[in-house]
């Protein structure tokens, strides 16, 4: 987001994706699901001595936390005998529990494999389908998430899954499907505030974007009103493609799918995004720019704006949306090529919470101060470790580290030490 409130996706391609995975996983009530399932096997008569031996070994492995190896045992034990159905259920439960653990641990590819193995034992298990869909989103394969999540909903209403599907369909520019899921959800849960807010937002977008044309480029799908200036759209597209090459190379990131970019008239932009009046762009899983009608900014400014918003997409992708706002805005400015204020000083006591509040402030002067401080702090980090260290920091945040955990691992300094140094310099 360029000098604007950060409008985040709750589930589909943003920080909240990690939160969603944990929330959906926790509803299954399986903190020790693999161990519980395997212990249940012990009281089911085995079809043979070999099957009983496999079950006993599974319980032993699960007791020491080796769920991946343990899950192989009930799966093999389900090969024959009168208790096949129970054993298939035990095996699927084991893979389910281990899959959630892998997902919480920031290993979506492992989670995909484990949920698929569980589905081989129980092909229509809603919890496994749900896990598979979330793992696909975490792995950056949101298109692969839709089918298993739809199957999970067909097995029975699930408000969380329907909400996630709405975000996914919105992300893939299928508003009618997204709105359909939200209306179904609200018919059952009329007090669901999140679903209501999202439905209102999507209906505003659909009204604003009626009649928009789509242009597909190497990295983007660009939408704009059909009667608008095509030369202007071409100029914006060139700036975006340049940003994708430059910023993508700098951070070593490229999206698995084309990013959607929507060019609005200024009134449409403000109506859809509901951001502060000083905002010149928004990234919320899509890049939204108030550039639908001429005149465009000068070419250099247009390139900076495109680089800033594409940087937000890259930061979001690498950190899975878990980077704090000051880091997002500071790094996006650095990647657009913004200059430091050499006279910058901060009266009072500098805190990260204070900077975080400033960059979202409705007052443009206070917001400008927050952006300047955020850029200064990020420049300091870049001086210490360059873009490779910054990329490492974002990846650690994406894997679930807190900022306090990630900073010493990347920069060798505790967060409190960095804050103290920044406070001394900027307060001087």
Structure description:
This protein has 428 residues and is mainly alpha-helical. It folds into three domains: 31-123, no CATH class; 209-319, Collagenase ColT, N-terminal domain (Glutaredoxin, 3-Layer(aba) Sandwich), CATH 3.40.30; 322-428, no CATH class. Helix content is 65%, strand content 5%. The protein contains 19 helices and five strands. The radius of gyration is 24 Å and the shape is globular.
How many domains, as an integer? Answer: 3
Return Rg in Å: 24 Å
Main beta sheet strand tally, sense and closure: 5 strands, mixed
Helix % is 55-70%
Biggest sheet: strand arrangement: 1-2-3-5-4
State the helix count: 19
CATH architecture of the largest domain: 3-Layer(aba) Sandwich
CATH class of the largest domain: Alpha Beta
How are helices and strands ordered from N to C? HHHHHHHHHHHEEHEHEEHHHHHH
Mean pLDDT: 81
* Beta-strand share of residues: under 5%
Residue stretches low in confidence (pLDDT < 50, at least 5 long) are: 2-48
The CATH homologous superfamily of the largest domain is named Collagenase ColT, N-terminal domain
- Helix and strand content put the structural class at mainly alpha
Number of strands: 5
Return the CATH topology of the largest domain.
Glutaredoxin
**Gross geometry:** globular
How far apart are the termini?
30 Å
């Amino acid at each position: 987001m360029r000098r604007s409130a950060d409008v985040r996706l709750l589930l589909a391609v943003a920080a909240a994706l990690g939160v969603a995975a944990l929330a959906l996983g926790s509803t299954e009530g399986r903190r020790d699901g693999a161990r519980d399932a395997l212990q249940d096997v012990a009281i089911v008569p085995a079809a043979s001595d070999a099957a009983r031996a496999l079950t006993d070994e599974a319980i032993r492995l699960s007791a020491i936390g080796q769920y991946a190896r343990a899950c192989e045992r009930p799966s093999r034990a389900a090969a024959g005998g009168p208790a096949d159905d129970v054993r298939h259920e035990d095996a699927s439960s084991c893979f389910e529990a281990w899959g959630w653990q892998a997902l919480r641990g920031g290993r979506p590819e492992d989670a995909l494999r484990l949920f698929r193995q569980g589905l081989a034992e129980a092909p229509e298990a809603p919890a496994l389908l749900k896990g598979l869909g979330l793992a696909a989103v975490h792995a950056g394969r949101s298109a692969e998430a839709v089918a298993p999540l739809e199957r999970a909903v067909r097995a029975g209403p699930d408000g969380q899954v329907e909400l996630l599907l709405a975000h996914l369909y919105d992300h893939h520019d299928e508003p009618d499907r997204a709105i359909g899921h939200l209306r179904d959800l609200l018919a059952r849960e009329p007090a669901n505030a999140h679903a209501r807010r999202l439905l209102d937002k999507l209906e505003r977008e659909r009204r604003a974007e009626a009649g928009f044309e789509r242009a597909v480029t190497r990295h983007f799908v660009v939408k704009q009103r059909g009667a608008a200036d095509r030369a202007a759209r071409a100029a914006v597209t060139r700036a975006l493609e340049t940003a994708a090459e430059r910023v993508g190379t700098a951070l070593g990131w490229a999206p698995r799918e084309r990013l959607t970019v929507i060019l609005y008239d200024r009134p449409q932009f403000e109506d859809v995004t509901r951001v502060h009046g000083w905002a010149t762009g928004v990234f919320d899983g899509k890049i939204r720019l108030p550039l639908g009608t001429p005149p465009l900014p000068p070419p250099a400014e247009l390139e900076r704006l495109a680089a800033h918003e594409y940087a937000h997409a890259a930061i979001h992708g690498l950190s899975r949306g878990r980077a704090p706002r000051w880091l997002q805005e500071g790094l996006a400015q650095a990647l657009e090529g913004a200059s430091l204020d050499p006279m910058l000083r901060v009266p009072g006591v500098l805190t990260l919470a204070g900077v975080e509040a400033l960059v979202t402030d409705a007052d443009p002067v206070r917001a400008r101060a927050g952006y300047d401080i955020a850029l200064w702090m990020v420049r300091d980090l870049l001086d210490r470790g360059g873009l490779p260290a910054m990329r490492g920091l974002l990846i650690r945040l994406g894997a679930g580290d807190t900022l306090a955990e990630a900073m010493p691992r990347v920069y060798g300094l505790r967060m409190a030490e960095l804050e103290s140094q920044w406070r001394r310099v900027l307060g001087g």
